[in-house]
Amino acid sequence: MLAMNYRGPFRVRVDHKPYPEIQHPNDAIVRVTRSCICGSDLHLYHGLVPDTRVGMTFGHEFIGIVEEIGPSVQNLKVGDHVLVPFNIACGTCSFCKQGLYGNCHESNPEATAVGGIFGYSHTAGGYDGGQAEYVRVPYADVGPMVIPADMHPDDAVLLTDVVPTGYQAAEMGGIKPGDTVVVFGAGPVGIMAAKCAWLFGAGRVIVIDHLEYRLDFVRTYAQCEAYNFRSMQDPVLFLKKATDFYGADVCIDAVGGDAAGSALQTITGRKMMLQAGSATALHWAINSVKKGGIVSIVGVYGPTDNLIPIGNVVNKGITIRANQASVKRLLPRLIEHVQAGRIDPKGIITHRVPLEEVSDAYHIFSAKLDNCIKPILIPPSARV
User: Residues 245-264: what's their mean pLDDT?
Assistant: First the structure.
């Protein structure tokens, strides 16, 4: 089969790899019909996530048709078109029972760090992902969900990660009616977080980024304010002035370790790898939120230390909430939002690329070329 093959930082290609096989009675084999390149994949592509091994296939956002099931699988049948959450979750451990599917204790040998994730390095279990023609899906009775008959596949594939992550970013912010919410990052997750903030009653939503085409997009898609931090002497001071010097009620870090905006953070976090990525957005979030406010973190950082102003967190009485989105928990309400027209997931897709051109797709997305917001990959069998 054709599959994306990681060859080292900034080097990916499509190769022929063996078809996946049933390895456990609860496995399913899924023929991929759509997969996405996520902003989080760029952390892997840029070499920022430890134990990302040569030969791995990325892709934690995918949908597809069930081709084969293990003997213990009861909730799926061959031919079902399913969306597969990026979390690999057993459904029975103490964390899954709490709805914390992103923190499953059984799906990842490195479970003290995170639950299993498709295509996201050996720190997340070492599972191959869905940027391929076929993928093995463990715990097939737990994660996969049959796509509603009236749902467009492009909407469904974005329900595997982007929409739930943006929604949970807003949810973790504890947004109350009338709150001012600042989102750092106008990538797909930041755009979705800004859109979802309104669903929780936000009175004002502000997005900060440095790419004008993304700022233009989020203004239209999320009906929010959007500003370029390159035009500011100090983004924190700008946001303080914009909020009567109180600070925002909620700040959301939707950037993670690839953040630009600070030479020190960039050198130590992205160039020299002395910390787990550049924590610029997290600095700004902590310093821009009001006393007693909430900082919600969904941006990806590596599993090592970061330089952050923890003293400001203590002195300001800030609450920090962070996690991988628990997709399975959120799907019922998100499907309702999509079917009611409150969220238009496919509206953020700008590029549809054949799987065979995955290397070009990564380059376009990483280098922010051609006004790329969200690329999806289409395998050959889904194009006939």
Answer: 92
